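We store chain and fold; thus.
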Amino acid sequence: MYVAFHEPHEPVASPMELVNEYTDVAENQNQAHYFANVENMDAAVVKLMAGLKALGVDENTLVVFTSDNGPETLLRYNRAARSYGVATPLRGMKLWTTDAGFRVAGIMRWPAKIEAGSVVQQAVSSLDFLPTFCALAASAPPSELLLDGTSFLPALASEQIDRQKPLVWVYYNALNERRVAMRDGDWKVLARLNLPKFTTVTRSNQAEVKAAKLSDLQIFHVTEDVSESNDLSESRPDKLAELRQRLEDHYRELVAGSHIWDTTK
């Protein structure tokens, strides 16, 4: 895993006639832009769905609406003046390893296979897209390609996903103190790393990254504690021990296969 930062780009902008529709209800012009951007995105989805219907394929096409991370913190940098998204009741924001940094909208439409209004409580990751789409195409990834994700098709039929590997995140430049996270079924784990903050894994720091120690684990039963506010590490030592070992195993596996960036070029 790696994290690369780029210079912040210009704020997303919608047509001013749309922005002006929100000036009376917004706190300021930037919030009006935010509201307009949400409507503009909705309008784009409407166009997409209309196009599928015109082609006569909308009933048997899987459409997935999601995003890559939680909402940006307002004014975290000088061009984040339109970041009015909130993650309530989740804890944190973008760049955190609590669920507000990871958990995002996950809406799927497939009338031929998914019952309208159904809700899936199982965790699904973008890592699962490739094996799922391969399954839909009656194909398979190359046998030598080791995937971290798994097909989520069973969940669409209200069945359990057969996830052999937990979901693991390592964010070496996270804003919160615990920069390693794992989701294993109903459980979420957070852990500290004895490392300075890095933006990428490079030749100069790879040994340090691979030898890093995990410590100060917190565990949360996130299906009942969505805000990750009730740390059960002391009251459930048995579960803590089990999850500690799983996190240790999968962290070592992840960093062993991490891409090493050559920053000399």
Q: What stands out?
A: Confidence is low (pLDDT under 50) at residues 1-7. The two ends are 20 Å apart (CA to CA). The first helix runs from residue 16 to 19. The chain has two domains: 11-57, 62-256.
